[in-house]
Amino acid sequence: MACIVQKYGGSSLSDVSKLKKVAEKIAGVKKQGINVAVVVSAMGKTTDGLVQMAREISGKPPRREMDMLLSTGERITMAYLCMALNEMGLEAVSLTGSQAGIITTHRHNDARVIEIRPFRVQDELAEGKVVIVGGFQGVSYKRDITTLGRGGSDTTAVALAAALQADYCEIYSDVDGVYSTDPFIVDDARHLAEVSYSAMQEISAAGAKVLNAQAVQFAKEKNIAIYARSTFDPGKQTVIRSLAPGVLMGVQAVVSEKSIARIRLFGSGLLARFRKGIDLLEAEQVPIKEVNVATDKDQAKASFVVSLSNTYGWQTIERQLLDILGADVILDKNLGALSLIGEGLNRDNTTLIETLELLQDQNVDVAGVTTTSFRISLLMPLPQIEAAVRACHKRWVTG
Questions:
Q1: Domain range holding 63?
Q2: Quick check: helix, strand or coil at residue 234?
Q3: Which CATH number is 264's domain given?
Q4: What would the DSSP string read from start to end of 123-162?
Q5: Is residue 356 part of a domain?
Q6: What one-character DSSP code corresponds to residue 6?
Q7: Predicted confidence band at 215 (pLDDT cuts at 50, 70, 90)?
């Protein structure tokens, strides 16, 4: 029997009316003789509300307790959705991440899926039930509840699809797929009918919230197509899958990230200080990126970037970090990053040169540049991000 995995985001499940509509969609698939496993996020802004209350209690809440707290949001949703399906005459069972066999690293708030042992899910599907799994969560090898970070329900869905050898994975949200930029910033953002795994990973890592980067990595490894769709506005969709090299060339997307800090080090003992700072951030489970180190005798310097959107207690961590790094350190706040995503951007320097010229003409102060095979990223003052996005999107996407 065919099997698919569906994932529904929190905006699709924000009230009882929407829950019932989602249940009707699931029932429609089940009536076609297809086995359905469904991964759900917390309803609406439930997670944000839980985080806000925790911060009112503690400036730096223990990460383990945050996982215990935040994992409850998905459990509420999965129970309600099962009730709605059972009310329609469909047998359904809800499973937590641990009950579904999702085994993770022992890294609270930002765990990685090690493996999925889907035996319980398979047994329930074999009995003709719809299986509803709480997304965003798993259980570590130490038997602690863990969460997978922002967008972790996407990872749950794709990893589960891989473990079940599902035909494909559908990701439902309040948008009808992936766009060339944020439609809230640029009115004429273009809908992308298909995106390669590699480009989608870069889009996600650069700050877009449509799909989780780890979820795309799972899909790439297992060659599972992801269909990103709107829950209640069918029609358009974006398919994320393997594409032959050269099919989609040039800039596909202009992505921005708005919650960034950059740390720069100079002077003597640089490598030892740098190592101590990295050790602290690893202990605090704060991921870093865009690492640059130069150990020239006269001009030793290092820098890295921290994304703050999923970091609890940053103010406390920041003070500790500055104490460890000592003198000759600069913390750049109020920064954002603009990224151009697409295949072939760095086969020569044309795109980078023209982008720098464009931003100079727009009086945008570029504070740093990094590149990968599919990405050009530029740091700049946060107040200039949206204007820069509009200018780059017009230049490289809409013409």
A1: 3-174
A2: coil
A3: 3.30.2130.10
A4: HHHHTT-EEEEESSEEEETTS-EEE--TTHHHHHHHHHHH
A5: yes
A6: E
A7: confident
Structural domains of the chain, count: 2
Smallest Cα–Cα separation from 150: which of 40, 47, 11, 258? 47
Mean pLDDT of the chain: 91
Which tokens is 229 given?
Answer: 């769709």
Question: With contact defined as beta carbons under 8 Å apart, do 60 and 320 qualify?
Answer: no
> Would 121 be classed as within a structural domain?
yes
Q: Is the pLDDT of residue 81 over 90?
A: yes
Give the tokens for residue 373.
């095979």
As a whole number of angstroms, the distance between CA 195 and CA 343 comes to 11
Q: Which helix (H) or strand (E) is 80 found in, with range?
A: helix 63-87
Token readout for 368 is 């740093």
112 domain-assigned: yes
- Rounded alpha-carbon distances, angstroms, from residue 229 to 54, 180, 292: 33, 15, 38
CATH number at residue 150: 3.40.1160.10
Q: Based on C-alpha coordinates, what's the Rg of the chain?
A: 22
